[in-house]
Amino acid sequence: MTILSTALGTVFYLLQAVSGESGYAQNGDVEDAEPDDNSRLLSFSCYSQLEVDGPLHSLTCAFDNPDINSTNLNFEICDSLLGIKCLNLNKLQDIYFIKTKKFLLIGNSSICVKLGGKNLTCQEVNIVKIVKPEAPFDIKVIYREEANDFVVTFHTSHLKKKYVKQLMHDIAYRQEKDKKDWMHVNLSNTKLTLLQRKLQPDAMYEIKVRSIPYGEYYEGFWSEWSPSSHFRTPEVNHAGLSLLYGPLSLIIRRLWNNCVRNQKR
To answer: How many CB atoms lie within 10 A of CB 24?
Structure first.
């Protein structure tokens, strides 16, 4: 009798949690959904970050639908862990998060959305294939007048990490007045040269950078954009052009006069 009462109580709890009382009837019709539909109604995305705090790695998950009422829902990761079968993620407002050094970094793990002790939907993931690097920082732009160019440099914390050292960087820049017209340059190092002749004179530019894993083992997503940096291009130096073309025109006149004399002879 006790077992029957416990079973009935569990069923009642589950029905109540996914009913309109928990908000799901209004936020996705989970109340009437078949189990196979949970993967659609409760779809989620996760990313990992390795060595975010010394030897600790992190995992962040969130529902794709921001309107889902996640009050009674939890996330759990199982398999490919060191010394433990499963770990629960902590709920932080609209995301679920864990920081640990238990990730084995080899093989697949199962991440499940749970209601009570029941798995509603699960995904198989490999922690090293969903890496989102930390954002680059400290962008500097230096103008070299003698070379007529701008040298762009920035830093990334991944240069000092054991894992995910190889990154591809996306440098985006634009004139501040052109809100949508971004120019992009991809490179694997942290230094870029922009030629002055390819930029508008006397214009203010905005520049920023993001990174993505670039290698055979680690894969994943673009990082967040770095904070933007700004620089201004110099005005056209008409006086300098006059100084340049003055002697040049004199040389051309002398050569022309010599050619005319030779023809008269």
So the answer is: 25
DSSP codes, 103-151? B-SSS-EEEEEEETTEEEEEEEE-GGGSB-PPPPEEEEEEEETTTTEEE
The pTM assigned to this predicted structure is 0.74
Q: What is the pLDDT of residues 100-134, one digit of tens each?
A: 999 999 999 999 999 988 999 999 999 999 999 99
Q: Tell me the sheet residues that pair with 73.
A: 115
Contact yes or no for 23/63 (Cβ under 8 A): no
Q: Cβ contacts of residue 72 below 8 Å, gap of 6+?
A: 17, 22, 115, 116
Task: Say which residue, 265 or 99, is predicted with more confidence.
Answer: 99
Region at 19 (left for phi over 0; alpha for psi -120 to 50; beta for the rest): beta
96 and 84 in contact (C-beta within 8 Å)? no
Neighbours of 164 (CB within 10 A): 24
Cα 259 to the chain's mean position, in Å? 64
Overall size of the chain counted in residues: 265
Count CB neighbours of 9 within 10 A: 10
Residue 94 has, within 13 A of its CA and on its CB side, a CA count of: 8
